Amino acid sequence: MARAIMILETLKQLRLWDAEPNNRFYNQIDLSNVGLMGHSRAGEAIVIAQVFNKLKFLTDYPGGVSFTDYEFGIKALFSIGGTDDGYMPLGHSLISEDVTMFGIHGIYDGDLSSFFFQAKLRYLRFTSNSSQYNFKASVYVHQANHGQFNRDWGRFDLIPGASRFMNVRPLLTMVQQQHLCKIYIAALMNLVLKNQMHYRVLFEDYRSAMPYLPYTNYISTFQDSNETIVADFEHYDVTQGTIAGSKVSIVNLLHWGSVYVKVYRSAMLILQPTNSSVGKYAIHLQNAMTGSWIRFQVCRAPEGLVDHLTVQLFYDNGTSDSFMVHVLPALGKRVFKTGSTDYVTAIQTISLPLLRPMVGLEFIVDGVNAQFLVDDIVVAN
To answer: Which residues contact 175 (CB under 8 A, 6 or more apart)?
Structure first.
């Protein structure tokens, strides 16, 4: 919380300098068009600052702490290895609204055991039917640690003594980690603050920049404010989709209910077919939906050994399209030399072209050892 207030007070000081004719910053700073970047605890502080920026009083202490003269135009947040729930107003996770937010995290992070900042992305809300475009995205980088995203912390994420037990051999170099970070932060700020929309493709699909990124595995997610939810699996009645009037049907599925995945703060659909059968999970829509893309989040559960599933889209004219979707495996990490290998399950965003108004879709899972988690099926423009 203190870091967030320091950020806002720094912006306030910059505003004063910008208004002083004899100051070197006079008329040089546009505080209606601001992007913030933070690493580690500061990666969470920028989110808190964006929320405080819109408030008049601190939620927990309205009689003791008031905010004055903030209301800056904070439009973009770039978090590197960000933490979560360092500040929980009224005992709840912080909810932010209507800002573009991106998080990058290393799978070999020795300070934070998981991609905790995903919770901040989950609790970012977009106003429906708003003219303001925003998105939230992330990239999970194999062989990247916590400290090498800056010049001072280095290859060892723990204090001296404990650090000698860390397994640093698989890591990217510091130059490589900072290089990929520069690519993403430059793209985000140019996209949001300068409206250079051609950079959006990097956040939609990291493969668009593969010639420029260090050679390793990447897992990325993307959601934006132009989406209509078909199913988010947060409801108790598993026979109905999220959108009104939709119905669910299943064939040959051993598991097909919602399970809560803590790191993502989300209920997800688990799909596992019965032995030696082709399992199917279908959502039937009451009214046809139009858009440019079908997007959903998917990952293989740690027990899942099958690397693909099939998605079929059904159109209003009776035709359909079928897509085979390849899903990345759980990636291994061994942070400590003497430790065992852990496997990280991380969701990735899949986008499929929507060629006609859609009246339904179906996930087809085939294989004895197939097990997938699916979340946030949406129609996007």
So the answer is: none
pTM of the model: 0.94
- Looking at the fold, whether 308 and 337 belong to one and the same domain comes out as yes
Assess whether 214 and 237 both reside in one domain: no
Residue 35's Cβ-side half-sphere holds a number of Cα atoms within 13 Å equal to 18
The alpha carbon dihedral of 62, 67, 72, 76 has a sign of negative
- Asked whether 31 and 70 are in contact (CB, 8 A), the reply is no
At residue 171, what are phi and psi to the nearest 5 degrees? -70, 150
Q: Which residues of 321-347 are buried (b: 16+ CB within 10 A; e: fewer)?
A: beeebebbbbbebebeeeeeeeebbbb
- Locate 202 and state its tokens: 């990097």
Report the run of H or E that residue 268 belongs to, with start and end: strand 266-273
Structure confidence at residue 74 (pLDDT) = 98
Task: Tell me the CA distances in angstroms from 374 to 217, 298, 367, one per residue in order.
Answer: 21, 4, 17
As a residue count, the chain comes to 381
**Contact (Cβ atoms closer than 8 angstroms) between residue 33 and residue 73:** yes
- The per-residue pLDDT for 368 is 79
CATH number at residue 267: 2.60.120.430
CA distance 301 to 66: 46
Q: Where are the alpha helices (DSSP H) in the chain?
A: 2-18, 41-52, 118-122, 174-194, 200-204
DSSP strand pairing (124-125 vs 100-106): unpaired
Residues 237 and 310 both lie in one domain: yes
208 and 249 housed in the same domain:
no
- Domain end marker among 178, 200, 225: 225
Look up tokens 């947060």; give the residue: 234
The region, left, alpha or beta by phi > 0 then psi within -120 to 50, assigned to residue 41 is: alpha
Lowest-confidence region among 35-49, 124-138, 157-171, 192-206: 157-171
Give the number of other CB atoms < 10 A from CB of residue 92: 10
The two tokens of residue 27 are: 């008329």
pLDDT at 113 over 90: no
Residue position matching structure tokens 């030399």: 337
What residue numbers bound the domain in which 355 lies?
A: 228-380
